[in-house]
Amino acid sequence: MKKYVAKRILTAAFTLLVILLVLFILMQLMPGSPFNDEKLNDSQRAMLYAKYGLDQPIYIQFFRYVGNMLHGDLGVSYKISRNTPISQLIQTRLPISLFIGGFAVSIGAVAGLILGLIAALKHDTIWDSIATVISVIGVSVPSYVFALALSYTLGFRLQWFPMLYTVQKSMGSSVLPSISLSMFTMASIARFTRTEMIEVLGSDYMLLAESKGISGFSLIFRHALRNALIPIITVLAPLVVDLMTGSLVVEKIFAIPGVGSLLVNAIQSNDYNVVISLSFIYSALYIIIMLVVDILYGIIDPRIRLAKKGD
Amino acid sequence: MDKTAVSAETYVPVDSDFRLKNNADEIALDANFAAQGFWRDVFIRYVRKTSAVIGFFLIVIIGIMAIIGPGMNEYTYSGQELSQKNLAPRIPGIEKTGIFDGSETMSTTTGSKKVNHYEENGLDDVYYWFGSDMFGRDIWTRTWEGARVSLIIAIAAAVIDMLIGMSYGLISGYYGGKTDIIMQRCLEVANGIPRLVVVTLLLLVLQPGMVTIVIALMLTEWIGMSRIARAEMLKLKEQEFVLASRTLGAGSFFIIFKEILPNIIGPIITQVMFSIPTAIFTEAFLSFVGLGIPVPQCSLGSLISEGFNSFTTHPYQIIPPIVVMALLMLSFNLVADGLREALDPKMKEM
């Protein structure tokens, strides 16, 4: 087990380094310069380059960059808000994004579990079909279609919830974005729960539990659901990816001042220091989550780490 | 389960304590079929699933409309008529029933009122079936043109992914040992980079356009395919028919692509079908963020992005591309689901 964890951590660290290198190289290839103001003459431009260390050889820039990134010093923004440290820009935005992401995951997990349970317990009835239709739609329709539909109907027409995010009413205005983001989570968890539950309910140990006289609530929740939920960790990976991508668009639609909309702004205004830092943060978050998922899964299900060892 | 019947001394089972064992998996009626090929078998299982058939027909209809739709009226996808901008949908014939008659409800501070820009501007014989956008371009034509572009991107990306991912996985699985370890480490690192980051950065570096989007999708989507190909290869490579082929002197590449590939084509086709909606979604996402197809070309994503700017005042502008995209993604998912079950009936239903 120790060897397995060590190997996973090493791979993750190496991946992070590769990402830093790729980010750095790609950014060097980017068209345009952060200082393409017509009013600057060559010597002023050279001064600016020297000030930001852009006149040094590439590899020195890279090593300095890696060192800074790992210290949490993400550099300064050139364009969006001049000379503001990026960590400061992110500081206020990250909690908002994380809150909405977390809200979405909670809604999705609870709704998905309920939906999946209903479908499994009422297997092959109209309830099952309804739940399946909902989950197929949830998996295949992208989150921003839901976002647009919700903000038009519930936000604009019925005015139940605010159409745009406001910091003052952060709770009420988080509802619509979170619901739109949660659809994919809900649908995949529902599908997964349904499949696993049907399998567990038909198993011999469920028959044993039932013949021992355990019934109702305890049977479903303590014996069936717990066994069905162990492999649910496997759906976490696609969920994280979807939340990240979804958050960009959903944040734009609801005008949420989060990390996603910052990235979109940075892309559009060619502020490459911000793009590089946010890509790094997204990648680091992703890698950490994947690492935790892999290790957790290895702990819960010994077959995984044994299989990996024999690999 | 009758708890009251349990006594300390003797327990007499009652009828309700017994239940027939569910042995549907163990015994099955032997059905006799006329000898039929694998693909015919797949076809029969496929058409039995209603949702898969519906999905298939939706794709066919949207595909046909993407081909003939833009040519069905006199407008072109880039032709602008600034005097006829923001007109609501109006269809000849149906207009008399009161819907699609070119009127739209405007919300003002004093309440909402119904206006018909066609009548106000004297455009009696002008018809925009899905309305016109803020530059006076026909939304019908643009929707189907966009569907065409999105479909081309998605299918091109899926096919290229298939070729790359399949070859990578098959080679890695077949050779095993050091080759496999190195190839799998590379794949793990590549998989650790979020798709969002790769696609975003690539589109910043390259010129936005159809080819760039395909390249971006290609770089990110091959991993899933290669995993499936490798897993299937590991299952098959120790089997007798491979050994037989090798004994007869077949080379590695012959075995990989001529002997094993035809046996794993099922899961690979399924994976291709699943990667098409992902590609459509990614393209739409990129367009929405502003990294997509350059104007005046359009894709479903760029149409949605344009429609979003005025979706509270002129909702009809965003509805057609959104509906087409949602239907397209839904039906590709339904078809992929159906194919997965048809190609491998033993597989766990998911």
Structure description:
The complex is a heterodimer of chains A (311) and B (350). Chain A has 311 residues and is mostly helical. Chain A has helices spanning 2-29, 42-51, 58-71, 86-121, 126-140, 143-157, 170-201, 204-211, 216-229, 236-253, 259-268, 272-300, 302-310. In chain A, α1 (2-29) runs antiparallel to α12 (272-300), α6 packs across α7 (170-201) and α6 (143-157) packs across α10. The longest helix of chain A is centred in the N-terminal third of the chain and has 36 residues, at 86-121. In chain A, 36% of the residues are buried. The mean pLDDT of chain A is 77. By secondary structure, chain B is mainly alpha-helical. Chain B folds into two domains: 47-75 and 139-349, MetI-like fold; 88-120, no CATH class. A two-stranded antiparallel ribbon of chain B has the order 1-2. The longest helix of chain B is centred in the middle third of the chain and has 37 residues, at 139-175. The mean pLDDT of chain B is 77.
A few lines on this structure:
The complex is a heterodimer of chains A (311) and B (350). Chain A is mainly alpha-helical and 311 residues long.
Task: Give short descriptive properties of this protein.
heterodimer, A: 311 residues, mainly alpha, 77% helix, B: 350 residues, MetI-like fold, 2 domains, 2 strands
Write the layout of secondary structure elements.
The complex is a heterodimer of chains A (311) and B (350).
Chain A: H1 2-29, H2 42-51, H3 58-71, H4 86-121, H5 126-140, H6 143-157, H7 170-201, H8 204-211, H9 216-229, H10 236-253, H11 259-268, H12 272-300, H13 302-310
Chain B: H1 38-47, H2 50-68, E1 103-108, E2 111-116, H3 117-120, H4 139-175, H5 177-192, H6 195-205, H7 210-236, H8 240-247, H9 252-260, H10 265-289, H11 300-308, H12 319-343
Antiparallel strand pairs in B: 1-2
